[in-house]
Amino acid sequence: MEVREKPAIKNRPDEWMIEQGMAGHKLPILNQTGKETVPLYPPQPDKIVQDKEAIRAVGNRKKLFAREREGWVGYVEWENYPEKKAKAHKILTSQTFPPCPDYQWGPIPGTNPVLPGDDFKAWHTAIGGELTTVADDSWKTVLKEKHPEMLHLLQFPYNGEPPKRLTTSKVITPNSLHFVRNHGGIPLIDKDKFELKLDGLVKNPKKYTLDDLMDESKFPRMEKTITMQCSGTRRIEQISLYAGQGDEVPQAPWAEGAIGTARYVGISLKKVIKDCGGLINGAKHLELYGVETYVKDLDVGNYVVSVPWSKVKANEVILAWEMNGEPLPKIHGYPLRVVVMGYIGARSVKWLYRIKAIENPSVAPVQAREYLYFNQQVGKYNLRPIDGIQIQEMPVSSAIMSPWSKQTIFHNGKIHCKGWAYSGGGRWPERVELSADGGFNWYAVPEEQLSKKGKWTWRTWEIDLPCDVEGWIEIVCRCWDNSLNTQPLNVRAAWNWGLHVTSSAHRIRVYSVNKTRELTKKRIAAFEKSGIPLAPLTRYDAVPGGLTDQELDEYWKAYPRDVDE
Ligand SMILES: Nc1nc2c(c(=O)[nH]1)N[C@H]1C(S)=C(S)[C@@H](COP(=O)(O)O)O[C@H]1N2
Ligand SMILES: [Mo]
């Protein structure tokens, strides 16, 4: 065949996919602010650059970023040393790193870990010193402490949730199955070398060993069953609808498992503040410091958030060292963590080493620049951190853990469903309702099919949901809490750029096959008789047992297709 000239076309092989909105990250922005529409293309993969001279000028990283305390592996102190922070920042900004693959437009990799977290790994090794081995150590701890069936959404910083069938199989989540949400490494702290510092606007700043805190003559024990929920729970539903803020760590693509319930033992933070002589000079917030290093916008710090004194005063903030009858697992904050009842998980600081009394909420990035609930019209090109509500109490929410979306269900008129319901701020699920018709008619879960009520805990539930329908249905779940708050009915109603707090009614689409119907029963029997597999729904098979030509002919005789006049 004659070889022709290469045709002058601009299509790329993935043109159709791109045109159909399946690869949004490859699309140019259309700039229509001038006379002509101008496409603004995404950059070609950037060349990795490194200003070696600038990095060398920062100094000896091993010395600069050394372990702060003996017996505290992975601990670099940043908050006390602004010059050190500046040096780490200099290192991170004197080079570029390979961009992380886009995961919001999919397909999300079919691997476990789902995402590797290459940027955070690279930042840690670039800073070096004590942080050099943090990513490897973290993964080793995951493999030691977590259940082999955990779904590792992000390898480093480690973010993982249990699979659906294990999320609600017990009312108290076994430690190995409790979800984990980290912003950095997992420090390995020797409890005999441990010390908690209390300073800032308290009358008598003090330091405590673990034994001091465990001294029952000073601090009465508290034991509480508490559900912890990440504000990222069910984020995947928001992502699937519209892409939002894109970095991997703040934005792990959680499903319904970023919630867990445990029995914690510890003491009330209020008593410790009192032991320091109480707050002074208008202190109204307590800043809580976690040991590990967190990189935010190439700035380096420790994990810091704050809680208001009013919450502490109500004895709703625990310093805990025991989780479900065991010392805290390393991955959950050993030896000491905060547990804030009814607030988003982010305030429950793990590897706690310092509490500082301050006047206003912390300006540290996790408190002031993340976990913000923006208005829908706030996004990448206009946002300011003050445009978001700082998320504290979680709203009422719920989820269906079984069946799964897109599943086909053979049933006899009732579909068995299971799930959880939770409300923050000390409210609790009072009623859970399911709909098999997209949210028009609702059935309440019978009280005896809901787990026990608790002020700070979720309730798990099961229901046989009546369903007469054949074909695709949408099962919806919503909860009413004891204040009669309920959930918005669709994701869009509460969609936000930060992709937080997906608290809308949980919807799944399943294909209902109702075997109480004679026709269905017969046809399935025909599949079985001929040994034709029933799954998957979309597989085409030549199934015998339809009408014969003669039967068709007789039918059209009795019920003519057309009218004569
Ligand atoms: N030091 C520290 N504390 C932390 C975090 C963290 O990354 N570092 N993550 C927070 C977030 S966002 C959540 S949801 C909870 C999760 O607690 P878990 O990992 O024990 O389930 O811990 C919080 N405490
Ligand atoms: Mo979280």
TrEMBL record:
Residues 390-510 form the Moybdenum cofactor oxidoreductase dimerisation domain. Pfam families: Mo-co_dimer, Oxidored_molyb. The lineage of its organism: Eukaryota, Fungi, Dikarya, Ascomycota, Pezizomycotina. PANTHER family: SULFITE OXIDASE, SULFITE REDUCTASE. This is Oxidoreductase molybdopterin-binding domain-containing protein. Keywords: Metal-binding, Molybdenum, Oxidoreductase. It comes from the Eukaryota. SUPFAM superfamilies: E set domains, Oxidoreductase molybdopterin-binding domain. One of its GO terms (biological process) is sulfur compound metabolic process. Its cofactor is Mo-molybdopterin. GO terms for cellular component: mitochondrion. One of its GO terms (molecular function) is molybdenum ion binding. CDD domains: SO_family_Moco_dimer (cd02110). It comes from Talaromyces rugulosus (Penicillium rugulosum). The keyword Metal-binding applies. The keyword NADP does not apply. Residues 183-362 form the Oxidoreductase molybdopterin-binding domain. InterPro entries: Ig_E-set (IPR014756), MoCF_OxRdtse_dimer (IPR005066), Mopterin_OxRdtase_euk (IPR008335), OxRdtase_Mopterin-bd_dom (IPR000572), OxRdtase_Mopterin-bd_sf (IPR036374).
